[in-house]
Amino acid sequence: MSDISLPQLSQLTGDVVQRLAQLRRQLAVWFWIDGLSRLLWAAIGLLVLDLGIDWLFRMDKPQRAVMLALIVGLLGWIAYRRLVKPLNATISDDALALEVERHNPALNQSMISALQFARMDDLDRRGYSTAMVRQTVQRGATASADVNFSAVLDDREFRQNAFLLVFAAGVLIALAIGTVMNPLLHIWANRNLLLGDMVWPQKTYLQIERAENGKVVFPRGEDWTQIVSVTKDSEVIPENVYIDFRRARGRATQTMKRKEGSSKLDAKAEFEAIFASVIEPFEFRARGGDAYTPWVTVELVEQPAIHDLQLDVDPPKYTKLPRQPLPAGRGPYFVLKGSTLHLKGTANKELVRAEIRHDGKSHKLKVADGKSISGTLPPNEIAAAQYVLDLEDTLQLTSRRPTSFGLRIRADREPRVRVRLIGVSGMVVPKARIPFKCTVTDDFGVTDLNVQFQWRGDDPMRPEGKGEFKFDAIKPQLGKAELSFDDVLELEPHNIPTGSGLTFHFASLDNDDISGPNLGRSSDFLLRVVTEEELRTDLLRREKEQRQEFERLVKGEEDLQTDSKALEAATRDAAELTAEQKDLLMQMQKKQKVYATNTAAISERMANILIEVENNKLEEPNGKLQGRLNEIIKPLRELADVDMPAIVQSLDQVRRQGNMQTERNAAIAASLARQEKTIEKMKQVLALMVKSEGYQEAVNLLYEIQKSQQDVLERTIKEQQERIKRILEGEKATPEP
């Protein structure tokens, strides 16, 4: 058997190997048909299941995406299980041969033996008989020649799988065509394959207002009212609409309220829900009837607001004031009527609109570079009101808490007129002059000043009179904010009769040309126009009052001297003053100060009498009455300013040297000497007062006699005229009663 070789054995089994390879290819086709059939039918089943679930439960987009992923994953697993794994498995010739022999028992393992011996080499070394091996190979090849290897495959199942595959392919093709032609399949394909937003046919359709691309914008931290509307193509308007929340705190579902003014018969009903103080994002959808909206995501954004507002005001031109900034955050702001307001600011985000509103009026503002706003309010739009900045951003959000400021109209006050009459009491004579000191202040400028007066006499038949005083001397000061001058009012040119009540006031106008000019007035002054005799009598009365007051001061000063002498006698030999004696000195000092003050007041009142004499022109300048009054006023002032304060100082010196006997006694002696001298001087002044009163009484008596004589003369002349008239007219004289 040395002539037998391995290649020859391989040639004997070559036909078997080729038939096994053909069987392997047939098996791959069988796997393809079986796997594809199962895969397509699984796809059909899963798609039908997906359609049914989506139809019944109206899955949202994330749920549909999960469902699509599950379908794809399951089909992938089936493809791997039924196609990839079987087709990638390596089936050896021996395995195929064993399968063929299992279906053909008659082969009795001859074919597998032939294949195995044909692959062996070096039979001699192995100890095999070459002839016997050859015979075995030959027998196996011969025995397998008449065997149908394809019989190992289930031909019936193959045909069934092929039929199912073709049918499934037809169904899928029809389904694909249906996604284009059939509305329901088209909706399903859009929703579940393309993950679109088409909805199933339903009787109610809901729309979440302001939702774009699955998002709706809420202002952060603010209450927000969300509107859900029932569209016009809805057949049924639901009784209730609900909002479902996802990833939100609190309730999972909220019932919406039908919007006011929206009835069941409306073509477009609206429902609203209030989201309170939203501070974190969440998702929600609306459902009502058979409608489910897609889930929308809430995005939080800041509301439009002004974080840098600058206000400037231009006052009216008549004020001559420059533009003034208004301090931020310190409103309400007080501005003059006729002012112009300029505002500018920067927003925290881009704006599409900016307005300023007040009292139902709106004024558009300029928006530059998206965030900068500016505008001007003319004088006719400046009012006492609250101004609100209304902003709208690119998302149509408006300011829920808008920036605001208040304006108040600051009145341009009328001029303040302060007048002091000098040397005038409640009585004046018709020829008097009234000195005054006047000060006028205004916020911006004084344009005029005059005196308005009127008088009314005792005679009701005589009409009242009125007039005006003008001052040419003030013209250089007009236009200034403050005017001050001294002048006199001359009554004589106005012929005001005696017995009249004279009322006058100072009036001033400012330069307000917007709502003015404003009139400022001083307080009213009331004077009684009297005869010279009446005024002299009043002056005499006032002199007597001052003399009587001074007499009391003289008496007080004498009492004070008596107390000082008593103190001197009690302390002459004492080493030091007691506490009671020191208190007595303090009280004496206080009394002396009061006497000095009262003496100064008497001298001031006497000086006023002197000025009244001059202002009422009761005598020529430096007349006798004025001379006598000056003789009284001068020593009174010396007493009040020099003598009495010296006594106060001497008493204080006594108190300070209370523990030094010699110095204290000397101080008491000096104080007594000053008191003695002061009392003597006061008595001299008192004598002058008495003398002046006597002279004035005599003068007044002469004036009364003269007046009586004048009255008698006037009555005599009048009686003579009446008698002559009666004689000329032939009337009888009427006897006097």
Which CATH class of the largest domain applies here? Mainly Alpha
Range of helix content = 40-55%
Our measurement of the CA-to-CA distance between the termini, rounded to an integer number of angstroms, reads: 210 Å
Kindly give the count of domains.
Answer: 5
Q: Categorize the overall geometry.
A: elongated
Low-confidence blocks of residues: 1-7, 732-737
Layout: helices, strands, pairs:
Layout (H helix, E strand, L loop, with lengths): L5 H7 L1 H44 L3 H28 L4 H11 L6 H9 L4 H4 L3 H16 L9 H27 L1 H11 L12 E3 L6 E5 L4 E7 L11 E5 L6 E3 L1 E2 L11 E6 L7 E6 L2 E2 L3 E6 L4 E9 L9 E3 L6 E4 L3 E8 L3 E8 L2 E4 L1 E3 L3 E6 L7 E9 L10 E7 L5 E6 L5 E2 L4 E9 L4 E11 L8 E6 L11 E9 L9 E11 L8 E3 L3 E5 L2 H40 L7 H37 L8 H33 L4 H69 L8
Parallel strand pairs: 2-10, 13-20, 22-29
Antiparallel strand pairs: 1-3, 3-7, 4-5, 4-8, 6-7, 8-9, 8-10, 11-12, 11-14, 14-18, 15-16, 15-19, 17-18, 19-20, 21-23, 23-26, 24-25, 24-27, 27-28, 27-29
Helix pairs in contact: 2-3, 2-8, 4-5, 5-7, 8-9, 10-11, 10-13, 11-12, 12-13
